[in-house]
Design brief:
- This protein is of the alpha/beta class and 439 residues long.
- The protein has 3 domains: 140 residues, NAD(P)-binding Rossmann-like Domain (Rossmann fold, 3-Layer(aba) Sandwich), CATH 3.40.50; 156 residues, Dihydrodipicolinate Reductase, domain 2 (2-Layer Sandwich); 83 residues, 2-Layer Sandwich (Alpha-Beta Plaits), CATH 3.30.70.260.
- The chain is 32% helix and 26% strand.
- It contains 12 helices and 17 strands.
- The strands form 2 sheets. Strands 7, 8, 9, 10, 11, 12, 13, 14, 15, 16 and 17 form an 11-stranded mixed β-sheet that branches.
- Helix 2 links the parallel strand 4 and strand 5.
- The chain binds L-homoserine.
Length: 439
């Protein structure tokens, strides 16, 4: 006799939503349109949705009585097996997810901030209560990356995870590159198009990417990588000119999030703008697209690319998690089996090439002085360009590409260079991402 339930015997799985914004609406629609009463494989039912403002018009075919501001309609409701948290933020989300898990409800979330800052506690609560906490949508929207790190790649020692995991900044940098426009103009345009928030800090200052790389690093290295040990620098200091000069040198500029192990210094996680060689695939990931490159010792380099945000791509990841639970995922599968301490490297010990752009007086000896400070910090120059010479005002852009150097040495050289009377401004210091070097 078969073990499948007949369509008649099959009961639907109750879903409760916390948040009914654009992603919540896409998830509710997917449930209603694809897994309603006629679906014979996985029948789901949106029992209730909790919203901040229940007077707002909603663009989904849900009974208005199912939408309210009352948390008790979802958390602890015995008709709801899976709570879907799509509110974002840290403290409230943490409290609601914890309460749901403790009431024996599974949770699916798209919340990178809470999973980065309090994920280990939440995953432990899920395990203690024998329920699932899944969070595929929290990193890189529709791209499946958490599942592969949690399941398919566990036989590997992961050497690096690096990605473009913030679509807003990638949109801004791509426009700056293609149109020669400056950061503030493109940011204003991105805001008017609705890509960037009116408070763009989380995206442009790198925090969104920081939360996401913290989540990925925990999974890849089975260790806690707290957000405050991750080096973070956003894109406000990248200028249109830098794209022009970078391109002459064979590079483009992207906001990269990286977690990488070095056998000597340990695990380093970092978020910052980086020069990427034009020939590597990451250099062609443009606009709001995301991409993640994972390198494992057995599998080699893997490449994931796709939509990192948007209602349907994010809804796709949320629905994947819901369906996995509704179809009876067999183990908790929520967390790496054990988290263990791992040596965390200091950004000071990071070694890479650097691109430096400065505005300097166009006089004899200026370059020699800059080179002297670099030399004293044990930094060797690879190439120098003099650009945009302004004869009238007697200054020019100096673009210096160094050989690989240690971050601490570079910071010390840069503070001395800034003091030089002939250096009007040190405009840019951008790290060059190293490819193909496992040292
Ligand atoms: N604000 C994010 C981005 C999307 O621009 O990629 C949500 O994680």
């Amino acid at each position: 006799m078969g073990t499948y339930m007949s369509a008649l015997e099959q009961r639907s799985t109750g879903i409760g939503l916390l948040g009914l914004g654009v992603v919540g609406t896409a998830v509710a629609k997917a449930i209603i349109e694809r897994h309603g009463p006629n679906d014979q494989s996985t029948r789901l039912n949106v029992v209730a949705a909790v919203v901040r403002d229940d007077s707002r018009k909603r663009y989904v075919d849900l009974d208005t009585s199912a939408i309210s501001t009352n948390l008790d309609t979802v958390i602890g409701n015995p008709d709801i097996a899976i709570v879907v948290e799509l509110m974002g933020g840290e403290d409230l989300a943490f409290d609601y997810i914890t309460s749901a898990l403790k009431s024996g409800q599974h949770v699916v979330t798209a919340n990178k901030e809470v999973m980065a800052k309090r994920g280990s506690e939440l995953l432990a609560t899920a395990t203690a209560n024998n329920v699932h906490l899944y969070y595929e949508a929290s990193v890189a929207g529709g791209i499946p990356i958490i599942g592969p790190l949690m399941n398919d790649l566990t036989a590997n020692k992961i050497q690096s995870v690096r990605g473009i995991i913030n679509g807003t900044t990638n949109f801004i940098l791509t426009k700056m590159e293609h149109e020669g426009a400056d950061f503030s103009d493109v940011l204003a345009e991105a805001q008017s198009l609705g890509y960037a928030e009116s408070d763009p800090t989380a995206d442009v200052d790198g925090f969104d990417a920081l939360y996401k790389i913290s989540v990925l690093a925990r999974l890849a290295y089975h260790t806690e990588v707290p957000v405050d040990v991750i080096y973070c620098e956003g894109i406000r200091e990248v200028h249109a000119k830098d794209f022009r000069y970078a391109s002459e040198l064979g590079y483009t500029i992207k906001l990269l999030a990286v977690a990488q192990v070095n056998s000597k210094s340990g695990l380093l996680a970092r978020v910052h703008p980086a020069l990427i060689p034009l020939e590597v695939p990451m250099a062609s990931v443009n606009g709001v697209l995301n991409s993640v490159e994972v390198e494992g010792d057995l599998v080699g380099p893997l490449w994931f690319q796709g939509a990192g945000a948007g209602p349907n791509p994010t809804g796709s990841a949320v629905m994947g998690d819901i369906l996995r639970i509704a179809n009876g995922a067999s183990n908790s599968g929520s967390s790496p089996s054990t988290l263990e301490p791992f040596p965390i490297a200091s950004m000071d010990d990071h070694v890479c090439q650097y691109y430096i752009r400065l505005t300097a007086s166009d006089r004899p000896g200026v370059l020699a002085n800059v080179a002297r400070f670099l030399g004293e910090a044990d930094i060797s120059i690879n190439s120098v360009l003099q650009k945009d010479t302004d004869i009238e005002n007697g200054h020019a852009d100096l673009v210096i590409m160094t050989h690989p150097a240690r971050e601490a040495n570079m910071q010390s050289a840069v503070s001395s260079i800034r003091e030089l009377e002939t250096v009007l401004q040190l405009d840019s210091l951008i790290r060059v991402e190293t490819y193909g070097d496992r040292s």
